[in-house]
Amino acid sequence: MKRDFDVVIVGGGVSGCALLWTLSQYTDLKKIALVERRGGLAKVSSNAKANSQTIHDGAIETNYTAQKAKKVRLAAEKLKNYALNKNLQNTVIFEMQKMAIGVGDKECAFITKRHEEFQEIYPGLTFFDKAKIKQIEPKVILGEQGLDRPENVVGSGFEKYWCGMNFELLSENFVQEAMKIHSENHVFFNFKVSRIESCMDDEWAVISTEGDEIYGKFVLVDAGSYSLPLAQSMGYGLELGCLPVAGSFYFVPGNLLRGKVYTVQNPKLPFAALHGDPDVWIKGKTRLGPTAFAMPKLERNKNLLKGVSWELFKMDFNPDVMGIVYDLFSERDIRNYVFKNLVFELPFFGKRKFLHDARKIIPSLYLGDLQYAYGFGEVRPQVLDRTRKKLELGEKKIVTGRGITFNMTPSPGATSCLENALKDAKEIAEYLGAHLDVERFYKELSPEELKTL
Hints:
alpha+beta; eight-stranded mixed beta sheet; single chain
C-alpha cells in the first residue's frame, strides 16, 4: 500500500517535532509524517543529556550582540509561552535564577556596560553586585577556607526566570499534541533514511535503508548533523562543509548552584563559554561545561573509532574546507582553546585541567568534587561556507524551491525551534497552496509580535 502524505519531516529531534505540531495546529494540512531513525524521539542532540538544558534568549549569553539578542529573545518567548500554555511547568520548563558574571575588574566593567545596553531589550534585567550574588548564589562568592573570593564579581540577569528546559520531553509533547489534532499524522520510528528521490507525480519518495518507502509532496529535512550529507547526496549544498564540534560536561554532587551562571565569552571564540547550573534531568547534581573540541563524527560515540563519519570526509576533503579550518586554527586564541579542551577529555589530566576553569564559577571546588559526565554532550554541526571561506555561525538552510528543504540547526536551534518551524511552515504552505494561520500563531505564542503584523 502506498503511504502518501502532504509533508514528510525527516528527523525526530525538537526542531522536527516542533514543525509537526506547528503544521498540525496552524495549517489545513492533515496528513503529515515524521520519520526518525532511532526507536524514540529526541535521542541525539535534543536528548536531555546532550545539551545545556537552557532556553537561550540572549540575556546572559555574552557572545550575542544586541541585534542578535533581540531576535533570539522573541524566538525564546514562543518556546516559553508554548510550555506555559500547555502547563508543563516543573516537568518540561523550569524556573530559576540566571546571570552572566564578570570576574575581575576588566570583566566587571564589561558586564556593567553590557547590562546598561541590554536593559532596553530585557525588561526587569537586574544588576547584581558582589553582595547580592553572595545572597542568591553563595557558592559563586565563597572561596577557599570559608572566605569570600578576593576578586570583584558582578552579574546581570534575573532572580527568577523560566529558563531551564528538558528538550527531550518537549519533543514528546509536541508530537502528542500534534497526534491529538490529526489522526492521519504518523510517526515512523527506526526509519533510517537511505535516499530521497523525486517522483514523476510531483512527489518525493523517502526511502529507508530497509527499502521502506513513504511519499510526500514536500520534504523538510531536520536531521541535525546528517542534513548536509543528505543534501549533498542529492546535489544540493555542495558549496558547504561541516566542522562537527563536540561538547562534554562535568558533574559536581549536590545543588551547589541555584540557577544558571554564565561567564564572559571570549569574542574571538565561536564556541560557548563555560557555565554551570543544576541539572534538570538528574536531580541533585550541578553540571559544568561545555567543553568544545572538533571530532570526525556526525554523532558522538565514546569509542574512538566507532562512528567515524565517511560522509564527513567526502564533504570536507577539499582545499577550500581545509583552508577554512587552517585559518581557524591559525588564530592563537582558538588554537589554544581547542588544545586545552582536548586535554579536558583525557583521563587523570583532564579533570585537573578543568578544575582551574570551573573555579571561575565555584572557587571552593576541590578535585574530588568533579566527575566526568560520561554519556553527556553531543556533536553540533558548524557549517563552513566554501564560497565565502568562513565559518557560518547559527542556523543554515538549503532551500531548493522544488519541495525539499534542508535545515542545519546548531545552538541555539532548540530555543529557536518554534521560530524556525514558523519559517518552514510559511514555505511549505506557500508551496502546497495551503492555509497558514499566522495571526493565531502569534496571538497564542508571541502576542508582542502580533502588533507588528
